[in-house]
Amino acid sequence: MKKILIIGASSAIAQATARLYCKEGVHFYLIGRNEEKLEIVKDDLITRGAEQVDLDATNPVSLEENESQIKRARQSLGEIDLALIAHGDLPDQKECEASARKTIKALTINSVSVISLATLIAHHLEEQNKGTLVVLSSVAGDRGRASNYVYGAAKSSVSTFLEGLSYRLNGTGVSVITVKPGFVDTPMTEEFEKGWLWTQPETIALGIKKAIEKQKSVVYLPWFWRWIMRVIKIIPRTIFKRLSL
Ligand SMILES: NC(=O)c1ccc[n+]([C@@H]2O[C@H](COP(=O)([O-])OP(=O)(O)OC[C@H]3O[C@@H](n4cnc5c(N)ncnc54)[C@H](OP(=O)(O)O)[C@@H]3O)[C@@H](O)[C@H]2O)c1
Asked: Residue 147 belongs to what domain range?
């Protein structure tokens, strides 16, 4: 992996993943809405051995900018070996229930912009006939829950989109990887009390690197979430609606 595009590059999971690819000859192109944060990520990656780190401090959620963002990334990197889409935000479920506008905003951040960028990146990778697209979805997309179904719906649409995209690109040199982390201790989840199911972003990053090496289509991280979600998915609706999940 020599030419790496990261969208939402200030994400703790994205940063931990980028660090695993820092070595001589690696060229990163980082997109994110906050220039100061991108500069900090850049300094860190350069210190750790990356050869070149270019920044694009524009908002990945601004749909009208997506086309030019990916075009600039392509111009800077030449070919893209690896693209990681990592931006996302946990909306306030109660506020979304009370406001269609907030629900649409949450869906735009977590789904529409991700799908827009994935579509544009897929075009480029298809043209190259090689490359890997990795997108951070979530276990939350596997089943609707009363306590977070807006975020869940966004992630579910991302996972379904990526599944279809991976089938479309099957047989080309392009691979598409859907990453479904469980609970990860990052700024997005800072308000939550952390228990035994929680993981650090560095563990998720190692799982992402392994999934890329093994060209997996879908990966639950850590691995035990595959089994947790299998159980969650088979609970009958009549029982599920009585659980306060
Ligand atoms: N943490 C978890 O438990 C968990 C579990 C499953 C999936 N995920 C997914 O993993 C991905 C990375 O999240 P993380 O845990 O690494 O959290 P994080 O460190 O808080 O990173 C979130 C990223 O999304 C960006 N972002 C948030 N709201 C945005 C907005 N309105 N417009 C543009 N960019 C925005 C942030 O940019 P700024 O730095 O500029 O704010 C940051 O780059 C997300 O897609 C998240 O849904 C996380």
From this structure: 3-240
